[in-house]
Design brief:
Strand order of the largest sheet: 5-2-1-6-7-8-11-12
Oligomer: single chain
Radius of gyration: 20 Å
CATH class of the largest domain: Alpha Beta
CATH architecture of the largest domain: 3-Layer(aba) Sandwich
Number of domains: 2
Bound molecules: NADPH dihydro-nicotinamide-adenine-dinucleotide phosphate, ketopantoate
Number of strands: 12
Largest sheet: 8 strands, mixed
Mean pLDDT: 96
CATH superfamily of the largest domain: NAD(P)-binding Rossmann-like Domain
Shape: globular
Helix content: 40-55%
Distance between the termini: 59 Å
Length: 329
């Protein structure tokens, strides 16, 4: 099959490189110039697994404007706030027979994708796998091959032949895909998970294992899970897990699967980039407001993340002003 990956960052590279290794034709489309330039200059991307075996994998990557292929499936892995720009710049290459698959965190992407793709060709899901971009053209797949899992569902909740073909290719890559027929329940399970783990680990600059080792972690998780479930249930979503199962999943992924991982939100915060919090905790707050439900803890955490972003960005820009003045003196 022919896959084109929109976003050659951490997760885009993980999916694209493994789909390519499984025998598919894979192209990448990227808007981040340093990444494009580095990959062109190196003749590919450096791939490691758990910081080991760093090796060069040849990949084809171009800007949206230079892309004129016609893939069977688009695989979309941008940050939520980058997606609208990616889509409008690549729109000339989209058509009605193409499928689109995304496992981005947060909510907001589905509506944007539906502006370009047929509802019956949209598959979305979640990826319980950690990946780190060390820098342009250099990616680290965290966790042993086949250790992670993913869930996916058709927007229409009606799998067709192509859905099964896509699942077969994902299986070959050992992504362990679980196909469900509950679209919103599948996506929101990960939003709830990320609203606890990504947000708290980011605020306290700790790994998932350090969070789970805190004796009060279950109390913190329960409060956020309860509020999130109160919101989702008001919206009529059939959640995949019970509240207790969701807590068990937070603990399993944090203690066993990825104890040493700093979630992707931390990776953004620590590099003074904006985070996806408005699409995770912020999404739950806005959804609650539709039903006059005040998701107070999620609102508070959303503010705390923005406060930390603002503080860090102000500190970074004052350091760069001082450095510039020293250079000029
Ligand atoms: N990483 C993970 O483990 C997981 C991520 N996801 C989700 O997948 C989607 C894609 O995320 P992900 O693949 O992590 O993100 P990316 O690796 O694609 O993010 C890279 C973006 O960050 C910015 N950036 C700038 N400088 C650097 C640098 N030195 N190193 C890395 N990035 C830099 C660039 O954007 P700019 O120039 O605009 O700053 C770049 O486009 C998101 O929705 C995410 O939540 C889901 C599961 C796991
Ligand atoms: C790897 C995982 C599951 C950890 O929360 C993730 O989604 C992230 O880092 O954003």
């Amino acid at each position: 099959m022919h896959f084109t990956v929109l976003g050659a960052g951490a997760m885009g590279l993980r999916y694209g490189v493994l789909l390519q290794e499984a025998g598919n034709q894979v192209d990448f489309v990227e808007t981040w110039t340093p990444n494009l330039e580095k990959i062109h200059q190196q003749g590919g991307v450096y791939v490691s697994r758990d910081h080991q075996n760093r090796h060069l994998v040849p990949v084809t990557v171009v800007t949206p404007e230079d892309y004129h292929g016609d893939p069977d499936v688009w695989v979309v892995f941008t940050k939520q706030m980058q997606l609208a720009d990616f889509l409008s710049r690549t729109a000339h290459a989209f058509n009605d027979h193409q499928y689109v698959l995304t496992c981005m965190n947060g909510m907001g992407h589905v509506e944007k994708l539906l502006n370009y793709f047929q509802p019956e060709k949209l598959l979305a899901g979640t990826a319980l796998v950690a990946t780190v971009l060390n820098g342009p053209g250099d990616v680290d797949f965290i966790g042993a091959r086949g250790a992670g899992t993913m869930n996916l569902a058709n927007y229409t909740e009606q799998p067709d032949d192509m859905t099964h073909k896509i699942v077969t290719e994902l299986k070959k890559c050992q992504f362990n895909p679980n196909l469900t027929t509950n679209f919103r329940g599948t996506l929101l399970a990960k939003v709830v998970f990320n609203s606890v783990v990504n947000t708290l680990c980011t605020l306290f600059e700790i790994t998932m294992g350090e969070f789970a080792a805190y004796p009060g972690a279950d109390d913190l998780s329960r409060q956020l899970i309860d509020e999130a479930y109160d919101v989702c249930e008001r919206d009529g979503v059939t959640m995949l897990n019970t509240r207790e199962e969701e807590l068990a999943s937070v603990n399993y992924v944090s203690q066993v699967a990825n104890p040493l991982h700093y979630p992707s939100m931390y990776q953004d915060m620590s590099h003074n980039r904006p985070t996806e919090v408005d699409y995770i905790n912020g999404y739950l707050v806005r959804l609650g407001q539709k039903y006059h439900y005040d998701a107070k803890t999620h609102a508070f955490l959303t503010h705390l993340v923005h406060l930390a972003e603002t503080t860090r960005q102000a500190a970074a820009s004052s350091t760069s002003t001082v450095t510039q003045k020293q250079a000029e003196a």
